[in-house]
Structures are given as C-alpha cells and as structure tokens.
Amino acid sequence: MAFCGNCKSLVYPVGGKLSCKKCGWSSDGPAAANVVRTAASGTKRVVLEKKEEARPLQTTTCPKCSHDRAYFHLMQTRRSDEPPTQINECEACHHSWRDYG
Ligand SMILES: [Zn+2]
Ligand SMILES: [Zn+2]
Fold first, then answer.
1. Calpha distance 70→62 (Å, rounded)
2. pTM, two decimal places
3. How far does residue 11's CA lie from ligand 2's centre (Å)?
4. How far apart (Å, rounded) are the C-alpha atoms in residues 90 and 95?
5. H or E segment at 14?
6. Which of 24, 25, 61, 77 is placed for a possible disulfide with 6 were both Cys, Cβ 3.0 to 4.6 Å?
7. Active site residue: 53, 81, 91, 99, which one?
8. Is 81 known to be catalytic?
C-alpha cells in the first residue's frame, strides 16, 4: 500500500510507477523514496506538511490585469468584533488587493 505524496490518498502502481488519480501526483519525483520507505516500514504515520502552493483560488477579477482568478486568504484584524480582511492575489500578475467584509 502506498499513499499519494501530495494529497495522501491511496495510490496504486500504474505502469511501474505510482500515480494518484485524485490530484495527478506521480512517484517520478524525489518523493517516491519516502513513499516506498513509509510503505515498507509499515507505519501508518501521516505527516502533515505545509504546502505553500496549496493556496485556495477563487473566481474574482483582478483590478490590474482583469484576470479572472486570484488566490485569497483571510487576515483577522486585531479586534475580534471586526470582520476579517480578505487578501486577494492575482494568479496571473500577482497584484494583491484587499476585500473588506
Ligand atoms: Zn493525490
Ligand atoms: Zn492581475
């Protein structure tokens, strides 16, 4: 048994390598060694890794280049009774701007 190096779902060998049907990850990269070793040792420990590229995308229009998708994250302001500020970052030109409320 092996797990996807990206989304941790079960993967099966396809054509001599592991590939994930869910996210398209395959064992071609250096992550393959880790997956094989984890499977061989029989441990079921799930390692939670922080992936920078796993930022959520939303459909919105960039005010700078009119691209229709942008990354976003919420930033809580110091006062908890205020709504969090939403920071958008354009997928295409990386211009960032704020959405309030
Ligand atoms: Zn996957
Ligand atoms: Zn843009």
1. 7
2. 0.43
3. 36
4. 5
5. strand 10-14
6. 25
7. 81
8. yes
Domains of the chain (ranges; CATH) run 2-41 (no CATH), 57-100 (2.20.25.10)
pLDDT in tens, 40-94: 555 566 666 665 556 789 999 999 999 999 998 888 777 778 788 889 999 999 9
Give yes or no for a contact between 87 and 101, defined as CB atoms under 8 angstroms apart: no
Question: Nearest 10 degrees: CA dihedral of 63, 68, 70, 75?
Answer: 60
Among candidate residues 53, 82, 89, 99, the one labeled active-site is: 82
Is residue 88 packed enough to be buried (19+ CB in 10 Å), middle (13-18) or exposed (0-12)? Answer: buried
Contacts of residue 101, defined as CB under 8 A and 6 or more positions apart, other chains included, come to: 83
pLDDT value of residue 60 = 93
- Rounded to the nearest angstrom, the distance between the alpha carbon of 73 and the centre of ligand 2 is 16
